[in-house]
Amino acid sequence: MSVVAADAFKNTSPFFFYSTSEVLAPSHQIASAASLSEQMLPELEKCLSDTYIVVSQPGVNAADYSNRLSMPHMRKAMLGNDKQIRSSFAVSDVLGVVVPNVWANVVKEKCTAEVLNVDASTGSFDVVDDMKPRVIMLDFPPLPGGPSRQEQSLINFPDAFLSSVIDLLPSTKFSVLYLTTPVSADQQNTIAENRVYEMENVFSPSLHMGLKRDLSTEQRDSSDNITLIDGPLFERYQFLSPGIFMGVFIGLTLLSILYVAISGVSGLQVSYAAFDKENGPAAQKKQQQ
User: For residues 70 and 63, what is the distance between their CA atoms, to the nearest angstrom?
Assistant: First the structure.
C-alpha cells in the first residue's frame, strides 16, 4: 500500500501562493490540477491585487523544498513572518499540470491587466514604473537531475530572482502564484541514484531518549559484557532520585513531630504528693465536708 502511494506521489508537484490581500485558501493538501483551478480562478477574478506574478518552475517535487535552507524569502512569506503578507497557503501534491497562461488570461480579461513575460534564464527584466494592473509571467529553467541538484544555490536562485522582482514593483498589492510541474521519468531515475537522504528527528526528545534506553537494554541482555561510561562517579550514577528525596523529607518530618511530642511529655512537672491517697480526690472531699 505504501509503495503504491509513493508511486502516486512521483507524478505530483507542489503549488505555493501568498498575497498581500485576503484570499480564501484551499482546504486540501492533495489536489488535482482541475480542482485547484476551480478553487483559484474565482479568487483571481476578484482582482484583489495590482500585480499577479505567475511563476512557472518545471521539473521539481515537494522534496526539493523540504530543506529549511531552501527558498528563504518565500519560506518567510509562507510562514507568516512577512508583515505585508496577509494570506498564504501551499498544496504539497498537485496531480497534473496547471497551464500558467490560462490563469494569466483570466486576470488579463477580468482585471484588464497587461501581461509581461520575463525569462529568468537571462537574469534580467524590464522595470515596471506605473500602477496599471499587470500579470508578470516568470519562467524558470528546470532543475538538473544529476548530483548538482543537491546544490542549494540552484533551488534558491528562483527565490532570489522572484524577491528582486517583488522589490521593484511600484505597488504593494501583489500576489504570487508559484506553479510547478512534476519531475520527468528520466529525472526521477537520476535523482534516485544520486539523492543523499538526510535523517530528520521526527520524534520528541523524551521518546527519542526512551528508544535509546530500550536499545541499550537489548544490548545488555544479549551480552554479559557491560561497558561503563567514562567520567566522574557522580556523572555516571544518580545517587539522589526523586523517590529517595521524598522518603528523606517525610522521614525528617515524622522525626520532628516525634521530637516535639517527646519534649512535651518530658516537660510535664507533677509532684509525687499528687499520687498520695491523703491528697487525692477522696481526701479533698472529706476536707470540704
Answer: 10
Distance CA 162, CA 16 (A): 13
Annotate 208-247 with DSSP letters as a single string: HHHHHHHHHHHHHHH-S--PPPPS-HHHH---S-HHHHHH
Instruction: With beta carbons less than 8 A apart as the criterion, state whether 16 and 178 touch.
Output: yes
Q: Tell me: the pLDDT tens digits for 252-285?
A: 999 999 998 888 888 777 666 665 655 555 656 6
| Grid cell digits, residue 192 | 534516485
Question: Which three cell numbers mark 102?
Answer: 490560462
Q: Angle, nearest 10°, between helix axes 100-110 and 33-44?
A: 20
Q: Which residues make beta-bridge pairs with 174?
A: 51
Rounded distance, CA 240 to CA 237, Å? 9
Cα-atom radius of gyration of the chain, to the nearest Å? 38
Answer whether 0.85 is exceeded by the pTM. Answer: no
